[in-house]
Automatic annotation (TrEMBL):
CDD domains documented for this protein: BDH
Domain (Fe-containing alcohol dehydrogenase-like C-terminal) ranges: 195-394
Origin organism lineage: Bacteria, Pseudomonadati, Thermodesulfobacteriota, Desulfuromonadia, Geobacterales
Name used for this protein in its record: Iron-containing alcohol dehydrogenase
Top-level taxonomic group: Bacteria
Length: 394
């Protein structure tokens, strides 16, 4: 196992009614005038918005609103938020929603402390800037999936070709996050299950790395994966199953908290995300759905081109899906089949074609996916390999 530093600076307030600490906790972090950011309005339909305003009123907090942050959030919302924050003398940001709102707010938090264009702050930008200060940020999570509530990253859609760009810095971990599973009761089935696919993929992206005997990380990871597989169907059967919603919400947070299942392992790669973002750029496809579509094809590609790693895929099949097959290649393939059956059970589309992807777009998506270099960690994925995977998923 390699050396690592482990730090999760975000305080999680988890469970029913935890919003009662909101106003005073913002004040304890020096907030007096809050930029209140949310998405397309779901928080007004399910009562969360009213509760927030009551909390603000009790604590004597002033606020300014940024609304309309879209799924796959656009940089224009970030720029609007930076303007609002500056022009109204705000000193705190509260993001209320799913990953899209949270991510937009992370970029706003960094952007308000930076003089140049926000684009400079994205990872890998030529001539880019280093984040050295951010505005104080807290979140209220209303949909489980991305892990943004307890991680240091965000993903913003930029430009005419809708490129998904990443902003990442330890300072972008929220100060605190309120995680009330009841807030997720109203998430539509499609988004609830896309969130489940996202959580599972975050776990798998950290699991499928060269084996460095990081046993604690891998066994904990397998445990969380099993919980996700077990509890997602319970949400399908009953969207108000509190314990299932609670387990899925905590799995979302734990999957990326401090990238804890990647600690001590070879570096960050997340190839499935690299490919999936191209589907979102081209078709505005829901993030978690892109990952469910690509994972089985990526697994089979890796198993066949890098057979040295078959034991990892076989271990996944045995420990997560309880496959009892001794031959590694057969066990690994059984695991992929079980995973596909799970995606089907949570109503993910079966293939890219069914998801509305056009065959003639595969080539350009493969090109764009490797624009900043090859993807992958077990086996490097250049344009040709990405294209093979996209074709296999088609
Ligand atoms: O906008 P509103 O009206 O709130 O509706 C949203 C949106 O339409 C709805 N929703 C959320 N909570 C709800 C609700 N509807 C009813 N009741 C509620 N309680 O759900 C829809 C999807 O919301 P969104 O925030 O887009 O979903 P998600 O949480 O999946 O976020 C996706 C974004 O996060 C990025 C993705 O790339 C994508 O842009 N990611 C962020 C990561 C991170 N920060 O670490 C990691 C991930 O891998 C991912 O890339
Ligand atoms: Zn993801």
């Amino acid at each position: 196992m390699n050396n690592f530093i482990y730090s999760i600076p975000t305080t999680a307030y988890f469970g029913k009614g935890q919003i009662s600490i909101l106003g005073e906790t913002i004040k304890s972090h020096g907030g007096s005038r809050v930029l209140l950011a949310y998405g397309g309005g779901s928080i007004k339909q399910n009562g969360i918005y009213e509760t927030i305003l009551q909390q603000f009123g009790r604590a004597g907090l002033a606020y300014v609103e940024l609304s309309g942050i879209q799924p796959n959030p656009r940089v224009e919302s970030v720029e609007e938020g930076i303007e609002l924050y500056r022009n109204n003398g705000c000193d705190f940001i509260l993001a209320v929603g799913g990953g899209s709102t949270l991510d937009a707010c992370k970029a706003i938090a960094a952007g308000v402390k930076y003089d140049g264009p926000v684009n400079d702050l994205f990872v890998g930008e030529p001539g880019g800037a280093t984040i050295s200060e951010v505005a104080p940020l807290a979140t209220i999570l209303t949909m489980a999936g991305t892990g943004s509530e307890m991680d240091m990253g965000g993903v913003i859609t930029v430009g005419a070709d809708h490129k998904k760009k990443v902003i990442m810095h330890p300072l972008l971990n929220p100060l605190f996050s309120i995680l009330d599973p009841e807030y997720t009761y109203t998430v539509p089935e499609y988004h609830s299950m896309a969130g489940v696919a996202d959580i599972l993929c975050h776990l798998m992206e950290q699991y499928f790395t060269p084996d460095v005997a990081a046993k604690v990380q891998d066994r904990m990871n397998e445990g969380v994966m099993k919980v996700v597989l077990e509890d997602a169907p319970k949400i399908l059967a009953n969207p108000q199953d509190y314990d299932a919603r609670a387990n899925i919400m905590w799995a979302s947070s734990m999957a990326l908290a401090g990238f804890q299942f990647l600690l001590g392992k070879p570096s960050f790669a997340f190839p499935l995300h690299g490919m999936g973002h191209e589907l979102s750029s081209k078709y505005d496809m829901t993030h978690g759905v892109t990952l469910a579509l690509l994972t089985p094809a990526w697994m089979r590609h890796t198993m066949s081109t890098a057979p040295a790693y078959l034991p990892i895929f076989a271990r996944f099949a045995r420990n997560v899906f309880d496959i009892r097959e001794e031959d590694d290649a057969k066990a690994a393939e059984e695991g992929v089949k079980k995973l596909q059956a799970f995606y089907s059970a949570i109503k993910m589309p079966a293939n890219l074609r069914e998801a509305g992807v056009k065959e003639e777009d595969l080539n350009v998506m493969a090109e764009k996916a490797v624009e900043n270099g090859k993807l992958g960690i077990l086996t490097p994925l250049g344009k040709d390999e990405v294209l093979q995977i996209l074709r296999a998923a088609f």
